[in-house]
Amino acid sequence: MEKHANIGSAAGGPSAGTSYEPSILGTVPSTGTAIHLVNDDVLQTVLHRYRDQIFYLGQVYGSTPKLPLWFKHFGTGPDGAGEAYHLGVFGKTGSGKSVLAKMALCAYMRYEQMGLLILDPQGEFAKDFRGGGSGEMRIPLEGVAKQYKKQVVTLSVRNLVLDRWELFQEILFESDFFQQLTMPKGDNRRDACAKLADELKKKKVELEDLHGRAAFDKAWKILADAKVQQVFYRTAPSRDRFESARADANPDEFFQYQWQPVTALFDKSRKGAKTVEAALNWLLDLSPANGVRPVLVIDLSREQARGLFWTDTIQSLVIKRLLDGITTTAERRFQDGNEKGLNTLVLMDEAHRLAPRHLPENGNAAAGVRGVLIDAVRTTRKYGLGWLFISQTLSSLHTEILQQLRIQFFGFGLSMGQEFQALRQHVGGDDSALRLYGLFRDPHSSFDISSRQYSFMTTGQISPLSFAGTPLFLNAFNRVDEFLAANGLSIPSTGS
């Protein structure tokens, strides 16, 4: 960093008439050049004009100064980037990636004009927003939201209401409902689900009423209709087998154990219930009553689904509905002439599972989620909608998503095999950066929690010190109180 006299006004510099501009020290400085050891005071002086934009996640790797970072909202103005961008946080289990993502989330909560959506397959973020998180370093997301006057709504599987007939068909297909009627998975079952949904709609049954006994009785009667049976079974022996199983079944048990766990997902009468569409419209309201955009957390963990029909496939189907909803809304707002953009960040945990490079067998639901995500990262930036992906791996995440990331954090655990090759591509083959990354040690190799180092390499324009275009390195804070104090957050610490 070079110091120049009489170039501009002193932005908090040592003396009037002094300003600073970035410089890459590619040669030995000339005789008489002032050299200063960089410390927090020097950085604060140099970056004085950006002091309100700076946020800290940790210290410069191998040193003591805090590494200044900036997380800008997606709108215009001094604190805005002027457009949306995508981020990624990568590292093996235990590398500190989730904690780093939560700290970054705190940075974005500073902006009243920014909305935040968190898709939480494991329920980890939801617990922190409820104030009940666990782990060595519990970031008080609930307290940070209160300090910034952010309203937080957490919807779990128990109060998120599904609102599409197509979802009902898919979930019924995945359930044991037709399996108990001697119909295995296949085209026949898919045809049966579609026909049943179509006939229920003809009888004016609403999705939100499917959970009731009256709707079930209509469905049971529909399946007894010979003309309906001919739609999904062409041969008489197959229809006879199906009808025999249906006639022998106990309707009361079928209603309780097969029908209700599926249809409860569409029941609006549940406590605190909100449909997917209503929840997204609330999040994306650009003019909320209190002037502060909210935080919406969708807890899709199995823990919250007791008593409901819930599998990984159903989770994927629900995530796809959420993704379809937010991308469709974003496009509609854009086409309606909304010049401000959505100014919204979507945090996606477990990204390697939801958008894998290679689909598993029978991965139809996963393919749907992956397709929507790939399309989203290509198109939603212009709508003011950005994404933050958290993943345990680089090599197993779809390449199209990786290529669209503007800012990336790489934690411990990516230094071998395919992971290292993927990492090399993302740092442009910078051998010196890769060698330094290779020095990262496993945080859990230290038995003393206070001495654990959660190291990260970061690429992209994440810091005012990123002018050289080379990766930056940091050790993330390993104490909550240090993180809070560094960023002026007056919240009681909930972790060591």
Task: Draw up the topology in text.
Layout: E1 2-5, E2 18-21, H1 40-46, E3 54-60, E4 66-70, E5 87-90, H2 97-108, E6 115-120, H3 124-129, H4 141-147, E7 152-156, E8 160-161, H5 165-174, H6 187-202, H7 213-224, H8 226-232, H9 236-248, H10 251-263, E9 274-275, H11 276-283, E10 295-299, H12 312-335, E11 344-348, H13 351-354, H14 364-379, E12 385-391, H15 399-403, E13 407-410, H16 417-426, H17 431-437, E14 454-459, E15 472-476, H18 480-486
Parallel strand pairs: 5-12, 5-13, 6-10, 6-11, 7-10, 8-9, 11-12
Antiparallel strand pairs: 1-2, 3-4, 3-15, 13-14, 14-15
Number of helical elements: 18
Counted up, domains total 3
Distance, first to last CA: 36 Å
Shape: elongated
Q: Major sheet: order of its strands?
A: 4-3-15-14-13-5-12-11-6-10-7
Quote the beta fraction: 5-15%
CATH superfamily grouping of the largest domain:
P-loop containing nucleotide triphosphate hydrolases
**How can the largest sheet be summarized?**
11 strands, mixed
What percentage of residues falls in helices of 4 or more residues? Answer: 25-40%
- CATH architecture label name of the largest domain: 3-Layer(aba) Sandwich
What's the overall average pLDDT, rounded?
88
Low-confidence stretches: 1-17
